[in-house]
């Protein structure tokens, strides 16, 4: 038994999601923009995305996904709520305390801002807090409503993003158990902070797509390789690569560089598009619901996004049954 198998650590025990009911197809997006389904699908893999109704916020989606993750684990409380988001309900205060109170909790609660890497950052922080004994049980929620920050007239971003939320419950356990978070690592390069940004005094997100694409492929490959090595895994032993769903071509390029066959790449981008901090838990939930991942599977999670930020996690899947919810 290796050291990774016999220490105290965080274990994933629940998985929940929330998608808005309204679905917007590529054809619908193309009615208002100089683009078409063929371009969007061939360049990104996206076919449709979910969008919130007026009045529905990140906090609404986050609270529903958080409740779903607690239900999935058969729990009704936790002592930390960590919300990764770029679209908080207000600039001040953080959205997480209200999410916690809507779940009936007086838990420690804070927001984390790491754009599309937010969920992996949150997983790493919660894992460290649980392992250190700061908390026992943590909800890590990734939730974003990019429809509130995307320029509907910008075809470079309007076709790519969707709204949604996903959450996992982490509990103190042992790293030899199914569900264990074996290793995480995070990174950033602030010299690229203008590649994905809401400019000062600007209203909308801007993205230099092809520059981000190139850096995403290189960095995600390095990060995934490194976290697998630290977890003591050969890449050939990875059962599923669950990358941030920014672009199907990015995911397949990274998998190819890692030597992973196409069937080990988890992707639900066709149905949900790029949901930023929600993307990895939404992909996990669809994969679990379809039986593509099961208890004991070795999962490599890797994200890349604005900041620039990136992060990876090596997780042994718990077999948690996802609870997948919807709201307007
Ligand atoms: O989630 C956080 C991290 N984000 C990412 O990882 C996103 C990474 N980037 C991408 O996924 C891709 O760069 C995009 C999907 C955003 C764009 O695809 P691309 O293949 O890199 O296109 P491009 O930006 O290099 O543009 C190629 C052409 C341009 O036309 P010209 O100048 O060659 O005439 C664009 O104007 O495609 C044009 N174009 C479009 N055409 C039709 C850009 N967007 C569209 C569009 N429909 N929606």
Strand and helix map with partners:
Blueprint: E1 8-20, E2 22-25, H1 26-30, H2 37-44, E3 48-51, H3 58-73, E4 80-84, H4 96-102, E5 108-112, H5 118-132, E6 137-144, H6 155-158, E7 164-174, E8 181-188, E9 196-197, E10 206-207, H7 209-230, E11 240-243, H8 248-258, H9 269-272, H10 279-289, E12 298-305, E13 309-316, E14 323-327
Parallel strand pairs: 1-14, 4-5, 4-6, 11-12
Antiparallel strand pairs: 1-7, 2-3, 6-7, 8-13, 9-10, 12-13
Helix pairs in contact: 3-4, 7-8
Oxa(dethia)-CoA binds at residues 35, 39-40, 43-44, 116, 155-156, 159-160, 196, 209-210, 212-213, 216, 246-247, 250, 274, 304-305.
Summarize the structure.
The protein is α/β, with parallel strands linked by helices and 328 residues long. The chain is built from 10 helices and 14 strands.
What does this structure look like?
This protein has 328 residues and is α/β, with parallel strands linked by helices. It folds into two domains: 8-174, 3-Layer(aba) Sandwich (Peroxisomal Thiolase, Chain A, domain 1), CATH 3.40.47.10; 181-320, Thiolase/Chalcone synthase (Peroxisomal Thiolase, Chain A, domain 1). Helices cover 31% and strands 27% of the residues. It has ten helices and 14 strands. The protein has helices spanning 26-30, 37-44, 58-73, 96-102, 118-132, 155-158, 209-230, 248-258, 269-272, 279-289; strands at residues 8-20, 22-25, 48-51, 80-84, 108-112, 137-144, 164-174, 181-188, 196-197, 206-207, 240-243, 298-305, 309-316, 323-327. A six-stranded mixed sheet has the order 5-4-6-7-1-14, sandwiched between helices. Strands 8-13-12-11 form a four-stranded mixed sheet, sandwiched between helices. A two-stranded antiparallel sheet has the order 2-3. Helix 3 packs across helix 4 and helix 7 packs parallel to helix 8 (248-258). The longest helix is centred in the last third of the chain and has 22 residues, at 209-230. The structure holds oxa(dethia)-CoA. Oxa(dethia)-CoA binds at residues 35, 39-40, 43-44, 116, 155-156, 159-160, 196, 209-210, 212-213, 216, 246-247, 250, 274, 304-305.
């Amino acid at each position: 038994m290796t050291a990774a198998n016999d220490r105290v650590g965080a274990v994933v025990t629940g998985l929940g999601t929330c998608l808005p009911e309204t679905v917007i197809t590529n054809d619908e997006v193309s009615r208002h923009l100089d683009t078409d389904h063929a371009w969007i699908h061939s360049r990104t893999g996206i076919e449709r995305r979910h969008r919130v109704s007026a009045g529905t916020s990140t906090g609404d989606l986050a609270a529903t996904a958080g409740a779903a993750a607690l239900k999935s684990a058969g729990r009704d409380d936790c002592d930390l709520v960590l919300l990764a988001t770029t679209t908080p309900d207000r600039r001040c205060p953080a959205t997480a305390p209200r999410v916690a109170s809507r779940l009936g909790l007086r838990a420690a609660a804070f927001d984390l801002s790491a754009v599309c890497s937010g969920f992996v950052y949150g997983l790493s922080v919660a894992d460290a807090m649980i392992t250190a004994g700061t908390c026992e049980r943590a909800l890590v929620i990734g939730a974003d409503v990019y429809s509130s920050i995307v320029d509907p007239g910008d075809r470079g971003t309007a076709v790519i993003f969707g709204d949604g939320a996903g959450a996992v419950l982490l509990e103190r356990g042992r790293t030899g158990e199914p569900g264990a978070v074996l290793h995480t690592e995070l990174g950033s390069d602030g010299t690229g902070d203008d590649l994905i940004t809401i400019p000062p005094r600007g209203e909308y997100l801007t993205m230099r797509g092809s520059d981000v694409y190139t850096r995403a492929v290189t960095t995600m490959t390095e990060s995934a390789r490194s976290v697998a090595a630290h977890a003591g895994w050969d890449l050939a032993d990875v059962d599923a690569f669950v990358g941030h769903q920014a672009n199907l071509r990015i995911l397949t390029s990274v998998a190819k560089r890692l030597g992973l066959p196409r069937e080990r790449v988890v992707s639900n981008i066709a149905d949900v598009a790029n949901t930023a901090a929600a993307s990895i838990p939404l992909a996990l939930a669809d994969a679990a619901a379809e039986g593509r991942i099961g208890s004991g599977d070795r999962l490599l999670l890797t994200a890349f996004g604005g900041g620039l930020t990136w992060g990876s996690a090596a997780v042994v899947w718990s077999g948690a049954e996802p609870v997948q919810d919807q709201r307007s």
